[in-house]
Amino acid sequence: MNLQYIGLDEINGPLIFLENTANVGYEEMVEIKLQNGQTRFGRVVQIEGSKVAIQVFEGTHDISLKNTFTKFTGHPVEMSLSKEILGRTFNGSGRPIDGLGEVFIDEKRNINGYPLNPVARVYPRNYIQTGVSTIDALTTLIRGQKLPIFSGSGMPHNELAVQIVKQAKIADGDDSKFCIVFAAMGVKNDVAEYFRKSFEEAGVMHKVVMFLNLSNEPIIERTLTPRFALTAAEYLAYVHDMHVLVILTDITAYCEALREFSSSKGEIPGRKGYPGYLYSDLASVYERAGIVNNAKGSVTQIPILTMPNDDITHPVPDLTGYITEGQIVLSRDLNQISVFPPIGVLPSLSRLMKDGIGAGYTRADHGSVANQLFASYAMVQDARSLASVIGEDELSTVDKQYIEFGKLFEKHFIGQGFDVNRSMMDTLDLGWDLLSVLPKDELHRIDQKLADQFYNHERAVERFHLVTKHYVKGLKGDRS
């Protein structure tokens, strides 16, 4: 029997407090009926004896201490699910906002997920093609991986997210078994409309489940949004055998909502005011990616976060880096010279990449090409540093070639543009053409057989219109 309580003992920010309650569970769903007949929803977030704290999703404005009726439902926060959620748009609390009515329900699931035996996890292999060369070749997104994007204020991470949604696909199998769950937290109305319009114009909305939490909506809803999104992803992956790519933006907005909520509960703050349990809370979100034994589907995550003041040691990117398997870092320097997507190659990595590329997955030369592109671009930075001291005219022939390689690499490989969708083969071929700009004996990370097969300096000169004399001289390895 569900009891209904009349009146409240205290209201504090997004929280209401009740005393003398009985048989109440942590995370239990609550219905709150206001004096004007309006019904709001909440969940139990703290229990001290017979006193409970309830987090109100829609906020506590207009709630009266005397004439409020509170009913505990006896179950946690759940999401209504069926395959009809594909192509639908929901708010941060999992309610449809696209005007198409309620979702036909096959089942309801606890948004906090279910305990997963670590032994049941399968090591991620194979990859998801994003169509973005820098990601596909150098920080390959492996199916079942969690690979965050570290951005900064004013950087085009929203545009990159849209490009990935438009272009992403699984490398093998039926593309109808691939879908995307997109969750935006704390975004402005114009940004939300940009996401919605972009997906519709690209004709990909039928394979997208979208959750939108606006900046003017309650922060409590923001703390629930990623859990609703991941619940939808797990349902599609493990019930309907789909490969699901989950994009969460912006995790920093989520963490700031968590900080505000923690402060309202009177909890002792940790680093920079964030709650001491921020690490475990983020882990409860990120660790819901992966592949499970006997499941044909998978959940892959791309969380996007903005680093305050571009500080990668800030608690949010710092803790995210500990939990996830690599990171894609956007470069402000590249963004300032209009390179899109402005992905910083050297600080970016994918820790699972080595086991999901190569023969049988992408191409046998993929690993070698990626390693050599990294090494050569690192040499570019050294040559640029030297040129800033002694001047570019005083550089050796090979150092000048590295300078030229760096310009071409940033212009043609990193800066592919918003509407260009490259296949993995096109990306690797472009990588070889760029490496062929350099002398063959500078390719120290390439096996001689691969170099003999793919290296073609004449083709590179023709493709990139290289006419400077030092290339002919450089082929002889002259460093004078």
Automatic annotation (TrEMBL):
Residues 131-350 form the ATPase F1/V1/A1 complex alpha/beta subunit nucleotide-binding domain. SUPFAM superfamilies: P-loop containing nucleoside triphosphate hydrolases. Residues 355-455 form the ATP synthase A/B type C-terminal domain. Keywords: ATP synthesis, Hydrogen ion transport, Ion transport, Transport. InterPro entries: ATP-synt_VA_C, ATPase_F1/V1/A1_a/bsu_N, ATPase_F1/V1/A1_a/bsu_nucl-bd, P-loop_NTPase, V-ATPase_su_B/beta. Residues 10-74 form the ATPase F1/V1/A1 complex alpha/beta subunit N-terminal domain. CDD domains: ATP-synt_V_A-type_beta_C, ATP-synt_V_A-type_beta_N, V_A-ATPase_B. Belongs to the ATPase alpha/beta chains family. NCBIfam families: PRK04196.1. Produces ATP from ADP in the presence of a proton gradient across the membrane. The V-type beta chain is a regulatory subunit. This is V-type ATP synthase beta chain. The gene is atpB.
